[in-house]
Amino acid sequence: MLGYYSKSAELAKKISEITPGDLSRSFFCQGGSEANESSLKLAQAFHVRNGEKGRYKVISRKGSYHGSTYGTMWLGGHPGFPRTDYQPKPSNVITVPHPHFYRDEFGSSNYEENAINSAQAIEDAIIFEGPESVSAVIGEPVSQPLGGILPHEAYWPLVREICDKYGVLLIFDEVITGFGRLGEWFGANLVKTNPDIMSFAKGITSGYFPLGGTTSTKKVANAFVGGPEKVWSHMYTYSAHPAGAAAALANLEIIEKNDLVQNAKIRGLQISEKLLEMKEKYEIIGDVRGVGLIQGVEFVEDRVTKKHFDSSLGLNKLLTDELRKRGVWIRVPAFILPIAPPLTINADQTEELCRIIDESIATVNKKMGK
């Protein structure tokens, strides 16, 4: 950890207490992009300290989003953030299919088979690139950009096993999923898999102060212990800012005091039930998915082919406008309605939110001729 402020040290201790597994050493920065950038650098530096300088490649998944820096923006690919202005793609980035059964790329016959095939794609990529050249695999336990994709329970344990087999570090991007949003403290808890490195931001202060960070296991952190030549050469101007640490500690106290992690789980079940009802009513809904307070609705022109509506029809703008007319502001991307209300939302507010979403989709469904 850079900086010796008491509040920052107190926050680092708190994070070590609530994160799963052996995650216990933290570095603080200003936001999610910097957190993931730090995690990538930490992973590569770890291998260098262990005499494996050739490990520099990173494997990510299509449809993921890990930040807006040049290094992170090429990890995955968000439909709402094209990269046409920022060529070329870094040569160290390897992209594999997402464990997304609704948009399966393998011809899988079921949810579990999709997970196994998706994990196998990671192993195939490691073997093809050469295990000695791969530094890390990075992914969100539940992927928000595509509307809350929760892989089958077999997926992440398989990925963990594959990473261990080839000496590759596993990085969880918990910038969005961390600190209660999934109905668990972290996505790692939900998917029952512990990473080597975890990136975090957003939820640690609930957005009240720009703060992010990277936390790692003792095994990773200890590679940088032993003298000046071992030190991790990495920093930001405002790393470990005490005001950010104070805001985070206050925020985490509120989350615990008000049992907001459990609230996210309960409200998530309420939302899921309502979304399933909407799917039965409206032909433009192809799929509903998610967990806790990260959920989504995917819209299609044809349920059989799963073809999306032509962008010229402006379905996303129509839905954004209908929601706003009814008092809900959600910026709807191309074909997915993302649903991520605050952790403090109560039962009545959730009911009202779902009613407005239902009415808005009904109007757009009619306008689309369904």
Polypeptide structure, described:
This protein is of the alpha/beta class and 370 residues long. It has two domains: 6-257, Type I PLP-dependent aspartate aminotransferase-like (Major domain) (Aspartate Aminotransferase, domain 2, 3-Layer(aba) Sandwich), CATH 3.40.640; 260-367, Aspartate Aminotransferase, domain 1, CATH 3.90.1150. The protein contains eleven helices and ten strands. It has a seven-stranded mixed β-sheet with strand order 1-7-6-5-4-2-3, sandwiched between helices. The chain has a three-stranded antiparallel β-sheet with strand order 8-9-10, with helices on one face.
Task: Spell out the key features of this protein.
seven-stranded mixed beta sheet; 11 helices; 370 residues; alpha/beta; 39% helix; 2 domains; Aspartate Aminotransferase, domain 1; three-stranded antiparallel beta sheet; Aspartate Aminotransferase, domain 2; globular
The general outline is globular
Distance between the termini: 56 Å
**What is the helix fraction of residues, given as a range?**
25-40%
Q: Tally the helices.
A: 11
**CATH third-level topology of the largest domain:** Aspartate Aminotransferase, domain 2
- Biggest pleated-sheet summary: 7 strands, mixed
Strand content: 5-15%
Radius of gyration: 21 Å
Tally of structural domains: 2
Strand order of the largest sheet: 1-7-6-5-4-2-3
Label the CATH architecture of the largest domain. 3-Layer(aba) Sandwich
Give the uncertain stretches in residue-range form.
none
The SSE order reads HEHEHEHEHEHEEHHHEEHEH
Q: Whole-number average pLDDT?
A: 95
Q: What is the CATH superfamily of the largest domain? A: Type I PLP-dependent aspartate aminotransferase-like (Major domain)
CATH class of the largest domain: Alpha Beta
- Which class of secondary structure composition applies to the elements? alpha/beta
For the secondary structure, the number of strands is 10
